[in-house]
Amino acid sequence: MKNIVILISGGGSNMQALVRHARQHEWGKRLGAQVCAVLSNKADAAGLAWAAQNGLATAVVDHKAHASRDAFDAALMAEIDRLGGKGRPDGKPDLVVLAGFMRILTPGFVAHYSGRMVNIHPSLLPAFPGLNTHQRAIDMGCRFAGATVHRVTAELDHGDILAQAVVPVLPDDTAQTLAARVLTQEHLMYPKAVENLLKLNT
Largest CB tally within 10 Å, which of 26, 61, 171, 199? Predict the structure, then answer.
């Protein structure tokens, strides 16, 4: 069985969409894959409670408890491999999925999971990497915005694009209303993109 570990920092709505899709579409039977654990850098992340209630292993690796990014990433890596690497030939999960995980990862961490880590970003990359994507799209007068699923590389919000969803930017949009419209599409796109990636690697 292929193991998938999901990283979150907050409510984990994309994580919930992934888990629901995986169970509804029987990834275990069809693709030989399972979401086995959810980790967060914040103990109060609401998504952890949902994950635990739905039978998933959970863990917290608090970034504030570590003196450096390298130290945090090393601790996070160890916990991911502990929960997701059981029974795996190389001791690592088959896929690490970032779902609202608000930490910039070090090159060493990215290299450890090279080729097996994906992220979803709330813009049509390569436009608007980083933060405040919705307000930046509005400020630039964009007529369309959206979200991108991409492989994770050492360069922030780069890597091969796996899927994109496009929504219109309406004349009266605020960053909040645009974000809500984009998030609806994220919940549809991300599970399908991960499923397609699993199929390629089956």
Answer: 61
